[in-house]
Q: What sequence folds into this?
């Protein structure tokens, strides 16, 4: 049984969050609490499985989009991620949909994590030839590899959607499960599959064992050693190569599109998208962090960079060094044609 309590205000948390290479500046929790099915869910920002109780209290945010819009307006610039709808009941409370509508109305590109059908607002639909204002992301879960119903509903509503998959050694990181997961996702309407390096701390490993045991008890003996004694971080590069091959066979991208702010100048948005894409494929961590810093600056600058570039003043306003500045300026000039 779940009990709902009303939150006194929207739960909006600012910070620098990494969504498999995409920047998230604001995390909004439509519902707080871990109660109800599924027993385990995967958090792509925390990069770990989360255990859920069968019953408990959920704190529901406001159902008025205007309250969320006001909360987002006080947060730093950049894309937002809405979460907290991994249960039935959104049609009654309406908190997730209100948060999503409020985020888009505030002028943010918006990621929708595990939205229910009722949680998908009309404003999330992509217009032909335009960058999507929202991107739906359905996370892999132990009890089901792919949320096929969610992907199909998003496709019917013309919302760009895909999946997030943790590359857990000896479970989801091998070729056979990846081909199955990504193939099923593509057939259900996914346009991307986002690989996530799982957190390797002791608690995350313990939860992985608990989750695997719950769905495949016969795998416990062989999986226990991989879960507790292998260095997960050293497995990730090979797992990523297998993931990319599986994604290519399924015909889907390994990075979601960056959702478009409805008020963001086109050149700014395109440059930020390309810089993030470059950082996601970069093996040099220092360079990747520099590219992400450039994205943060573009998001915060807000003004249209097109006239700044045309007038030859870009390097005068760019604060992160001439070398990176020339690279960003070159991208902007390409986008301006």
A:
């Amino acid at each position: 049984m779940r009990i709902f309590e009303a939150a006194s205000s929207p739960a909006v948390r600012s910070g620098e969050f990494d969504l498999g290479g995409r920047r998230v500046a604001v995390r909004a929790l439509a519902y707080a609490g871990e109660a109800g099915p599924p027993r385990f869910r995967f958090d792509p920002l925390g990069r770990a499985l989360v255990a859920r109780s069968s019953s408990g209290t959920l704190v529901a945010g406001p159902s008025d989009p205007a309250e969320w819009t006001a909360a987002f307006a006080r947060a730093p610039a950049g894309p937002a991620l809405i979460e907290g709808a991994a249960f039935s009941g959104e049609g009654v409370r309406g908190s997730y949909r209100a948060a999503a509508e409020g985020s888009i109305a505030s002028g943010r590109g918006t990621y929708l994590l595990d939205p229910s059908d009722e949680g998908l607002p009309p404003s999330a639909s992509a217009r032909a030839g335009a960058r999507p204002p929202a991107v739906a992301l359905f996370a892999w879960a132990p009890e089901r590899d792919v949320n096929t119903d969610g992907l199909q509903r998003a496709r019917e509503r013309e919302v760009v959607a895909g999946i997030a998959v943790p590359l857990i050694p000896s479970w989801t990181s091998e070729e056979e499960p990846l081909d199955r997961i990504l193939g099923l996702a593509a057939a259900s309407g996914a346009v991307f599959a986002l690989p996530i390096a799982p957190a390797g701390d002791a608690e995350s490993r313990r939860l992985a064992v608990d989750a695997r045991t719950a769905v495949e008890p016969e795998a416990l003996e062989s999986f226990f050693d991989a879960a507790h004694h292998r260095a997960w971080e050293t497995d990730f590069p090979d797992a990523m190569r297998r993931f990319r091959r599986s994604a290519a066979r399924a015909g889907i991208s390994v990075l979601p599109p960056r959702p478009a702010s409805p008020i963001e100048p086109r050149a700014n948005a395109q440059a930020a998208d390309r810089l993030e894409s470059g950082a996601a494929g970069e093996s040099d961590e220092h360079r990747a962090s520099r590219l992400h810093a450039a994205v943060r600056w573009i998001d915060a600058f807000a003004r249209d960079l097109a006239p700044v570039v045309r007038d030859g003043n870009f390097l005068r306003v760019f604060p992160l060094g001439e070398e990176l500045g020339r690279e960003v300026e070159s991208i902007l000039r390409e986008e301006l044609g």
